[in-house]
Amino acid sequence: MGLDALDIIFRLEKSFGTMIPRGRVFEEPSRPTFGFPVKVAGMAAADVPMPEKDRGRLYDLTAGQIHDRLCELMREQGKAVPYSSWHRVKKCLTDALGVSPKLIRRDSWLVQDLSACF
Question: Are 56 and 36 in contact (CB under 8 A)?
């Protein structure tokens, strides 16, 4: 997990008052889970586990996937998901990545579109 990912995790934990276990929002490329596609550089997004030869390559998530995973985690922990959850996630991404909030949409890829480093 890179520094941008850690910064985002810390900001999300502070904003939502919750602990995010390792691998719950940014899982390791060798273990794509939660039924979300993991986009690998040079490959199309897929819902299937990453082939052995592609493990360790650059992977990417959308801002919307991070939001959805965080909401799922909060519900599992018995916490209410705030109405402003998307705006909080967007603010955390804006602050951590130093990009304009106008660039962050649910379908924005963190590495490809927002230049995050994982």
Answer: no
* Residue 88: its H or E element: helix 85-97
Residue 116 half-sphere exposure toward CB, CA atoms < 13 A: 30
Q: Which tokens go with 13?
A: 């934990």
- How far apart are alpha carbons 84 and 37 in whole angstroms? 25
Distance CA 48, CA 38 (A): 9
Q: pLDDT > 70: what percent of the chain?
A: 70
Cα–Cα distance for residue pair 88/85, rounded to 1 Å:
5
pLDDT in tens, 43-89: 554 444 555 544 444 568 899 999 999 999 999 999 999 999 999 99
The model scores a pTM over 0.70: yes
Our CA angle for 95, 112, 9, nearest 5°, is 40
Distance CA 118, CA 106 (A): 19
In terms of Cβ atoms closer than 10 Å to its own Cβ (0-12, 13-18, 19+), residue 103 is middle
